[in-house]
Amino acid sequence: MIMNCPIMLLTALSIATPDIVSGDFPPDVRVARVSEEQSNTAVAPPSVRVTRSKSDPNRWSCEFTYRPDRPADSVHLAGDFNGWNPNANPMTLTGDGRYRTTVKLDEGTRYYKFVVDGDSWRPDPLNPDSVHDGHGGANSTLRLGPEAGLDPERSKAGDDAIEPAALEHEPARPIYRQILPDGRYLLRYRTLGGDCTGVRLSIEHFGNEPMQLANSDGLFDFWEIAVDQEADDHRYTFIVEDGEFKVRDESIYTLEQPQDGVHRTPDWAKDAIWYQIMIDRFRNGTTEND
C-alpha cells in the first residue's frame, strides 16, 4: 500500500501469528514478526514515486522530482542514505522544467533535501512530513516499509500488545551498539513510544537483564544497558514485555568488537576545511560584578 502525503495512513497494524522457540537460548518466547501488509506500506509525497523492489523486498526504488523556484545550474539529492553528500546524486533536468533522479533505498524512515547550485539546501516543498534539521531548517521525511504506519497515539502500555514494526536493533550503527571508555558495550533497543512496559537483554549463558528507558523522541522509545566484556562472542537477543505479554526480537546477534571502527568520516567531508570560533571575550554588561 502506497499513500501520498498528506493523506493519513490507515493500515491496520497487527502481530502476525508468531513462532515458538524452545531451549535456553534463544528464550522460549514468541517471535514478533511484521505482516506482509505492513511490509508493502509506504508514505510518500507527490514528488516521490516509490516501488518496492521485487529482487530485494527490504529495498525500494524511489524517483525524486523537484522544480526549483528559480533557474538553477544544478540540483542534487542529499540525505541520510548518502551521508548528506551534496554531490552524490545529481538530478537530471527534464523537458517540463523538473529535475529527477532515481535511487534505491533501504526500508525505514529516510531524510532528504535538494541541493541547488551546490550550496542552497532546500526541503521538499511538496512534502509536509518533515523534522527539524538542527540548523533552523527542516529535513523532508520519506517512510518506507513497516515503519510507515507507526503511530504512538494508537499504542498503550499494558494492553498486552506490541507493535513489531517498531522493534529495531542495528549493531552496525553506533546509536545501537558502541564501546564505552571503560571497555564495556553499550547496547540500545528501539520500541514504539509508550507501547511496552519493559525490555530485557537476553545473552547466551548470561541470562536476561532488564534494560533502562534512556530516551524518547515522540515516535520511539530507546532502551539501553551496559554489558561487560566477558560476554564477548556470545549471542544475544531482546525480549519486549507489555504486562504479561512478551515477544522477542526475530534476530539473533553476536556481541563482538567492531572490525574497522565505529564512526566513519563521510567522503565528502574528508577534505573539507572546518572552522571553530572560540569566543574568549564578552561584552561587559555590568562592572558591578567585576
Structure in a nutshell:
The chain is mainly β.
Report on this model:
This protein is mainly beta and 290 residues long. It has 2 domains: 109 residues, Immunoglobulins (Immunoglobulin-like), CATH 2.60.40.10; 98 residues, Immunoglobulins (Immunoglobulin-like). Helices cover 1% and strands 37% of the residues. It has 1 helix and 21 strands. The strands form 4 sheets. Strands 1, 2, 5, 6, 9, 10, 11 and 12 form an 8-stranded mixed beta sheet that branches. Strands 15, 16, 19, 20 and 21 form a 5-stranded antiparallel beta sheet that branches. Strand 11 and strand 12 form a beta hairpin. The longest helix has 4 residues. It is globular. The protein starts with a strand and ends in a 36-residue tail after the last strand.
CATH homology-level superfamily of the largest domain: Immunoglobulins
Query: Unreliable stretches, pLDDT < 50, 5 or more residues?
Result: 5-23
Number of strands: 21
Taking the sheet with the most strands, its summary is: 8 strands, mixed
| Mean pLDDT over the residues | 85
Order of helices and strands: EHEEEEEEEEEEEEEEEEEEEE
Give me the number of helical elements: 1
Number of domains: 2
CATH class of the largest domain: Mainly Beta
The secondary-structure class comes to mainly beta
Strand content: 35-45%
CATH topology call of the largest domain:
Immunoglobulin-like
Rg calculated over all Cα atoms: 22 Å
